[in-house]
């Protein structure tokens, strides 16, 4: 297992004063306005003159925009505004890539107040400064242009070299996110063990040696409170102060679920990389798996309610988040991660190789109709996944 360095993100809660909270909210709103104005500029130029406006064109106009609005756009970091324009440019490039690939394109949209929550500073020291008061013995601060020195709840040590700094709003909380280069990888000692993992809803994952990692179902646990908050929101008058409070309440509940899911995914992934040198998982297409049942209002598809419930359970389990975190932790720990095609793994007997849909008796039971082998369905699938991954690895080594 090799060493080396990786890129890693560190996220900390900000301890804002009332003035700083108001300044950050104004900063976020001005960046949202800039994003929407740049999008309108591109749309209008192409619709009226057939001209495609690029990032370089809009970046060159920033100094004039700032000069015309010194108490608004001119307050904030020039480089952070360039980052916002690059964010729009990235959305357009992704749109054209989808068009070329023949997928549903999805044209870039204007950002409403609830759909723009992050401002980024591309370089530490340019409009921002991490650990801006190093002489302070008991607290850490980050300096943001136009906001000041903001106290950070730094609950762990930052490693590597801080490259970019971003501030994100979640409900009524603000977080700073540091992207750091040259973070030591810190490979773990070899264990000599390999495992296949089967993703599930009853258990988040089940390993090929029969160890399940529980699925906490955070969204389901908060469903009643979320439903009550959303009903209260629906009764509020648009534009009212009470509606804004209700929106914040719903956003806060969703943010809590998101944090709980992220924390659970980190713990589950860490348990796997500490135990196994080689981890094989299914190469899942989660977007395809969670599509709505086909049909229309006039002629709805079959089992629409059941499919909706399954989609909700899959998304609540957070498979995509877990696999992303697992990939990062495996790289940092020096573990080998292999993705395999999941087709047939749940219907194939891990003992004799017979594949038939009749083998899967229930969601939890597997009984081979050819050899009589019986096992937990998820464990049987995980064994098949592990074998497929090891075969891929041997083939790659032999090539």
Automatic annotation (TrEMBL):
In the C-terminal section; belongs to the transposase 35 family. In the N-terminal section; belongs to the transposase 2 family. Residues 319-385 form the Cas12f1-like TNB domain. GO terms for molecular function: DNA binding; metal ion binding. Transmembrane segments: none annotated. Keywords: DNA recombination, DNA-binding, Metal-binding, Transposition, Zinc. This is Transposase. GO terms for biological process: DNA recombination; transposition. Residues 6-48 form the Transposase putative helix-turn-helix domain. Residues 187-292 form the Probable transposase IS891/IS1136/IS1341 domain. PANTHER family: RNA-GUIDED DNA ENDONUCLEASE INSQ-RELATED, TRANSPOSASE.
């Amino acid at each position: 297992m090799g060493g080396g360095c990786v890129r890693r993100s560190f996220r900390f809660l900000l301890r804002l004063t009332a003035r700083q909270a108001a300044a950050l909210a104004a900063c976020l709103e001005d960046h949202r306005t800039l994003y929407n104005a740049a999008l309108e500029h591109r749309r209008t130029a192409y619709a009226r003159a057939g001209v495609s406006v690029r990032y370089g064109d809009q970046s060159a106009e920033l100094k004039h925009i700032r000069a015309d609005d010194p108490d608004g756009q001119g307050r904030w970091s020039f480089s952070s505004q360039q980052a916002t324009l690059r964010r729009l440019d990235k959305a357009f490039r992704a749109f054209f890539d989808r068009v070329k690939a023949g997928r549903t394109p999805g044209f870039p949209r204007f950002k409403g107040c609830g759909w723009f929550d992050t401002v980024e500073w591309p370089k530490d020291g340019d409009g921002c400064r991490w650990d801006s008061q190093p002489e302070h013995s008991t607290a850490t601060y980050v300096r943001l242009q136009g906001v000041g020195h903001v106290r950070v709840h730094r609950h762990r040590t930052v490693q590597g070299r801080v490259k970019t700094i971003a501030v994100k709003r979640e409900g009524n909380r603000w977080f700073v996110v540091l992207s750091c280069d040259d973070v030591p990888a810190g490979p773990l000692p070899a264990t000599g063990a390999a495992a296949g993992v089967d993703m599930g809803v009853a258990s988040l994952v089940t390993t090929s040696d029969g160890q399940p990692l529980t699925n906490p179902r955070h969204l389901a646990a908060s469903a009643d409170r979320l439903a009550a908050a959303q009903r209260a929101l629906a009764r509020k008058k648009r534009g009212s102060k009470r509606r804004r409070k209700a929106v914040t309440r719903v956003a806060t509940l969703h943010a809590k679920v998101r944090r709980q899911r992220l924390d659970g995914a980190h713990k589950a992934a860490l348990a796997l990389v500490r135990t196994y040198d080689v981890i094989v998982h299914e190469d899942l297409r989660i977007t395809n798996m969670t599509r709505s049942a086909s049909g229309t209002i006039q002629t709805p598809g079959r089992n629409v309610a059941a499919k909706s419930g399954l989609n909700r359970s899959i998304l609540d389990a957070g498979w995509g988040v877990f696999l992303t975190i697992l990939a990062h932790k495996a790289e940092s720990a020096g573990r080998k991660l292999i993705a395999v095609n999941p087709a047939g793994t749940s219907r194939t007997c891990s003992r004799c190789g017979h594949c038939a849909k009749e083998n899967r008796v229930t969601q939890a039971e597997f009984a081979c109709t050819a050899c009589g082998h019986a096992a937990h369905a998820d464990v049987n699938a995980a064994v098949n996944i592990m074998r497929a991954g090891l075969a891929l690895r041997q083939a790659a080594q032999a090539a």
